[in-house]
Specification:
The protein is of the alpha+beta class. 27% of the residues lie in helices and 28% in strands. It contains eight helices and 20 strands. Strands 1, 2, 9, 10, 11, 12, 19 and 20 form an eight-stranded mixed beta sheet that branches. Strands 13, 15, 16, 17 and 18 form a five-stranded antiparallel beta sheet that branches. Strand 15 and strand 16 form a beta hairpin. Helix 1 runs parallel beside helix 5, helix 1 runs parallel beside helix 8 and helix 2 crosses helix 8.
Length: 371
């Protein structure tokens, strides 16, 4: 075999995974069709470090998010990766809103998320004087991270461990062979590259379903549904008006967490993302300026300091959900396909939020299920 381990996909999860596995296995390869790491989902998100309060009890999303948060913060501290444990405030109005916050707090505590606190109007005003809400739910351990710095450090660690990286290399065919897998890929000049590996990890993000199918695992339950989210930046000096993550109550079935504020490491304030289903499945990263009013209307009641003219279209991202339109939330798929006859072909499918937060815990989980 040319390699003991090959990881397809150089997003934050793929980088964390190849770093983890390179501690244990002698030869490892990281492959990505883009020219560098993190060109997909990992560079087009809110950069939020979640606490694990939204997800179903005992789900992979809940367990790996909670474990991953501490692993991520520890790693960022060790490597001097910029991050800010600023806290998250989920706000609501009226008795129905208060009830939803109470339900969220109960779910968080069931998941083992500690430190959540229900807040009244006065307590909210103390935390965030410019936020207007009757009720709030505060989680002090949520935060933001510089994802580029994070991925740069993960890649550096991997290379230090001897990992080979192959960017602008797109996997086209995967053949099961004795003791592992043979891959056919094309480089940037359309030259064919063939190599073999004992362990193959599919962390291809938006293309994860395609990679699984190419290998011969064509499971309808693995079909990805693309949901787009857009962001608008807040200008005119208004970035100084909030210091924490401010969220509304999440949307039904956790399709999205609602248009919220994020102040990134550079101090820039963003609103977003929204969430809408891409019926045609096209990966279009444009931002529709016509949605400015939608964003303004979504936040004006709890962020009264924001004017329409403060908003400017910024960037967008696409979530690789397993959740079809109108259906309930689905958990991560992280499975060794040995029972299908694909020993140590590890599928990571539907790794959307909280994938960034959970990335290092996902890497440990992958390591444990290799047989």
């Amino acid at each position: 075999m040319d390699y003991t381990v090959t990881v397809i996909g150089a997003g934050v999860v793929g980088l964390a995974t190849v770093r983890e596995l390179s501690e244990r296995y002698e030869t490892a390869l990281l492959v990505d069709k883009e020219e560098s790491f993190g060109r997909g989902i990992s560079s087009r998100n809110s950069e939020v470090v979640h606490s694990g309060l939204y997800y179903k009890q005992n789900s992979l999303k809940a367990d790996l998010c909670i474990k991953g948060q501490q692993l991520l913060y520890d790693y960022c501290t060790e490597k001097s990766v910029s991050h800010n444990i600023c806290g998250k405030l989920i706000i609501a109005q009226g008795s129905i809103g208060k009830q939803k916050l109470t339900e969220l707090l109960v779910n968080a505590e069931r998941n083992g998320v500690l430190g959540g606190k229900l807040c009244n109007k006065d307590e909210i005003a103390t935390l965030e004087p410019h936020v207007q809400a009757e009720y709030g739910l505060y989680f002090p351990r949520s935060g933001v991270v510089d994802t580029h710095q994070l991925m740069l450090n993960l890649e550096h660690d991997s290379k230090t461990n001897g990992v080979d990286t192959a960017y602008k290399v797109e996997v086209k065919k995967i053949k099961k062979i004795k003791g592992g897998y043979e891959l056919l890929a094309l480089d940037a000049d359309a030259n064919e590259i063939r190599f073999t590996t004992e362990i193959l990890v599919n962390s291809a993000g938006l293309a994860a379903n395609f990679i699984s199918t190419v290998a011969g695992i064509n499971d309808p339950d693995y079909t990805l549904q693309f949901w787009k989210g857009e962001y608008f930046s807040v200008g005119n000096g208004k970035e100084k008006f909030v210091s924490r993550l401010i969220y509304p109550v999440p949307e039904r079935d956790n399709v999205g967490l609602g248009i919220h504020t994020t102040t990134d490491i550079s101090g820039r304030l963003k609103l977003g993302p929204n969430a809408f289903y891409l019926v045609d499945g096209k990966l279009d990263y444009s931002v529709d300026e016509g949605r400015k009013e939608e964003f303004y209307n979504a936040v004006k009641d709890f962020l009264p300091f924001i004017d329409m003219d403060d908003l400017n279209p910024d960037y967008s991202g696409i979530r690789p959900k397993l959740q079809p339109l109108g259906k309930g939330e689905r958990d991560f798929i992280i499975v060794n396909e040995a029972e299908r006859g694909y020993k140590n072909f590890i599928n990571l499918i539907g790794i959307e939020s909280p994938g960034l937060t959970a990335s290092m815990a996902i890497a440990e989980y992958v390591d444990k299920i290799i047989c």
